[in-house]
Amino acid sequence: MDWGMKNRLAQIIKPDGHCFFLPIDHGYFLGPTSRLEKPAETIKPIVSYADALFVTRGVLRSAIDPVRSKPVILRVSGGSSVIGEDLANEELTTSIEEILRLNVSAVGMSIFVGSKYEKQTLTNLSTLVNECEDYGIPVMAVTAVGKELAKRDARYLSLCCRIAAELGARVVKTYWCEDFDKVTGGCPVPIVIAGGPRCKTELEVFNFVHDGIQKGAIGINLGRNVWQHKYPVAMMRALHAVIHKKAAPKEASELFKELKNKSG
Fold first, then answer.
1. Containing H/E element for 23?
2. Confidence band for 143, pLDDT divided at 50, 70 and 90
3. What's the CA gap between 206 and 175, in Å, rounded?
4. CB 3.0-4.6 Å disulfide test: which of 145, 164, 165, 211 passes with 189?
């Protein structure tokens, strides 16, 4: 691994080997998502606790301060919306020249294994890796499932993650599932856990994040369970404690309640 690649990975993965990515890229297929209508305002109180932002170029330019920015992972795939025929019908949306112009630490894109557009999205990943490796830019593959949430089991996610790694992704973002060690055990590159839809309770979030870390994930890429929460700062700080301070779910829950009471 050359110096540039190592340097960029070190920007998004902290010295303890863990990371907390804050995704605010949801608008690329969901539009003005609830509580993300004004991204700059949404992230202002919580961004200091993130290790990197996962964001599209449009929101990066319009809502992120270039002088005091966190490291950026740039979302570079898209082309379908939540009301379209198939979310899996994605293409690469951003050129390597634009990636370099924006001076980002990494890029990220979705793959849809097992879908009608499997080959297309996997070829997209291969193309992106080919271009980015020339410039020392890490690629994060996102094992997306579209609207088919039932796909989120260990057998399917293990397949997705291994294929992403085989095609050259330096990091893979995937969902937590039962027997998550089977997913991490079959993937030779670091895995970060996706947040997915809002959970019913805070403890549910702390439980799956803690379990995932214990079973081999290096961190999380989690947004809606933070910035759609009534107490986003408390959630952000409690999750930060799980990832970087080895807090157990119960400890994180107690910290959340303490911070929530102070804020309200």
1. strand 19-23
2. very high
3. 14
4. 165
Taking residues 226-246, what's their average pLDDT?
98
Closest Cα to residue 12, out of 235, 227, 220?
A: 220
Predicted pLDDT at 227: 97
For 3-15, the pLDDT digits (tens) are 999 999 999 999 9
Please give the pLDDT value at position 198: 84
24's CB contacts (< 8 A; 6+ apart) are 36, 39, 42, 43, 53, 54, 55, 59, 223, 227
- HEC per residue, 172-223: EEEECCCCHHHHHHCCCCCEEEECCCCCCCHHHHHHHHHHHHHCCCCEEECC
* Mean pLDDT within 211-225: 97
Rg (the chain; Cα; Å): 17
| Distance from C-alpha of 72 to C-alpha of 11, rounded to nearest angstrom | 9
**Six-digit token pair at 5?**
């690649």
The DSSP 8-state label assigned to residue 71 in this structure reads P
C-alpha angle 53/251/199, rounded to 5°?
Answer: 55
Q: Is 87 helix (H, G, I), strand (E, B) or coil?
A: coil
Distance CA 31, CA 25 (A): 10
Cα 108 to Cα 25, 74, 164: the distances in Å are 10, 6, 12
Residues taking part in catalysis: 173
Fold of 3-196+216-221: TIM Barrel (3.20.20)
Is pLDDT above 80 for 74?
yes
- pLDDT for 263 equals 85
**Residue ranges covered by each domain of the chain:** 3-196+216-221
Alpha-carbon distance values, 183 to 104, 149, 160, 231 (Å): 28, 17, 9, 31
